[in-house]
Design goal:
Strand order of the largest sheet: 2-1-3-4-5-6
Order of helices and strands: EHEHHHEHEEHEHEHEHEHEHEHHEHHHH
Radius of gyration: 22 Å
Largest sheet: 6 strands, parallel
Shape: globular
Protein name: Lipid-A-disaccharide synthase
Catalytic activity: a lipid X + a UDP-2-N,3-O-bis[(3R)-3-hydroxyacyl]-alpha-D-glucosamine = a lipid A disaccharide + UDP + H(+)
Keywords: Glycosyltransferase, Lipid A biosynthesis, Lipid biosynthesis, Lipid metabolism, Transferase
Enzyme class: transferase
Distance between the termini: 15 Å
Organism: Asaia krungthepensis NRIC 0535
Strand content: 5-15%
Number of helices: 17
Helix content: 40-55%
């Protein structure tokens, strides 16, 4: 005799860094809006945990980048990989959704190839930039790839990967909703004081490489702009480390960890220096003129240069097809070059105007397709794609059990 109780379906989520935690939280909200009975388990950060996920272990343990940086932690990462795989095997969830973090996520999915659970990977691995050969293993790792960038649909599709473009969640980040006046009042900043955003990254392994350069850059910039106010928007995962590192900077920076404060800082800022990645799109959405600064271990940089196949590393430049924002990488990531770029952006209005016009063109490409989002957000589009596969599996399971 059938019973009316609903058996909750379980989705196993994996996010390995701060940006993935944000993606995962938005996805959880969009999925719960469609099916409030869903249960989420797996690995995530504070934003996903605030929505009910109990993380198998702290997400910050996976936030490592670069060959040299990973090597000392291989044993620990291997242990965590075993824990994650064993948890999936024991729980037998209804679906697995891995979010970005390809270094860990692809190893995780490889270990689960023979587990008959639908799998989705959210955020296309940037193999179009390097490691193209890795794409041949993707069809056996997951059932569907959800991409954030429009050109990835054709690129992955031509290589046999089932893919959906769901739009870029930066559009729903709220980065363009800040209040400049509120930020200046909250932190006691004069109306005429120039504000410079400094974004060194969200990973503990990358922050130490940019902070010393930023500090020396500020010493130079202060001579030309005595009233400069540096602002560091940081993930809570690295905030304490950064506070200790900037204690002796020549200009005391304002450190913000709350999302609303970060967006208010964007609204008040005249320019920004940022690492490459999603932060360039956040700043573009907020219309903050920027330069990209990035530095990794020399060995990692040497290997990367031999493999990278794209002309630009900044997402804004990649989508525009030209250098909209300066890229000051590795040898060019020096205090002098960063100070010069910052001064130009803060004092030459025409540079900012040119960048802002290009930002609008780039952001227009990132809207989700109508077929998935139905005038909704990128996370709505991603949730629709996830539920399409989850519901197909549920329907198949129902028919099989009733046969």
């Amino acid at each position: 005799m059938p019973h009316s109780a609903i058996t909750p379906r379980v989705i196993w989520l994996l996010a390995g860094e701060a940006s993935g935690d944000v993606l995962g939280a938005h996805l959880m909200q969009a999925l719960h809006a469609r099916d409030p009975h869903l249960i989420f388990v797996g690995i995530g950060g504070p934003r996903m945990e605030a929505l009910g996920l109990t993380s198998l272990f702290p997400m910050r343990e996976l936030a490592v980048m670069g060959l040299v940086e990973v090597l000392p932690r291989i044993r620990q990462l291997s242990q965590r990989l075993n824990e994650a795989v064993n948890d999936v095997v024991l729980r037998q969830p209804d679906m697995i959704v891995t979010i970005d973090s390809p270094g860990f996520a692809l190893r995780f999915l490889k270990r689960l190839r023979h587990v008959t659970v639908p799998k989705i990977h959210y955020v296309g691995p940037q193999v179009w930039a390097w490691h193209e050969k890795r794409v041949h293993s993707f069809p056996e790792l997951w059932d569907r790839l959800l991409c954030l960038l429009p050109f990835e649909v054709e690129w992955f599709g031509d290589r046999g990967v089932a893919v959906d473009f769901v739009g870029h969640p930066v559009l729903q980040s709220g980065a363009d909703q800040g209040d400049a006046k509120r930020f200046r009042l909250r932190h006691g900043i004069a109306d005429e004081a120039p504000i410079l955003i400094l974004m060194p990254g969200s990973r503990r392994s990358e922050v130490p490489r940019l902070l010393p350069v930023y500090g020396k850059m500020l010493a130079l910039l202060k001579e030309r702009l005595p009233g400069i106010v540096p602002v560091l928007p940081l993930s809570p995962l690295v905030a304490q480390t950064v506070r200790a590192a900037v204690a002796r900077w020549p200009v005391k920076p304002i450190i913000v960890t709350e999302l609303h404060d970060k967006h208010d800082a964007f609204a008040a800022a005249g320019a920004a220096l940022t690492k490459s990645g999603t932060s360039t799109l956040e700043l573009a959405l907020a219309h903050v003129p920027m330069a990209v600064a990035y530095r990794v271990n020399p060995v990692t940089a040497f290997m990367a240069r031999r493999m990278i196949k794209v002309k630009y590393v900044a997402m804004v430049n990649l989508l525009a097809g030209r250098e909209v924002v300066p890229e000051l990488l590795q040898e060019r990531c020096t205090p002098g070059e960063l100070a010069e770029a910052s001064y130009a952006l803060l004092t030459d209005p025409s540079l900012g105007a040119e960048q802002r016009a290009a930002f609008d063109e780039v952001l227009a490409q990132l809207r989700p397709p109508e077929s998935l989002a139905h005038n909704g957000t990128p996370s709505d589009a991603a949730a629709e794609a996830v539920l399409r596969i989850l519901n197909a599996r549920s329907a198949s399971g129902t028919s099989e059990s009733g046969a």
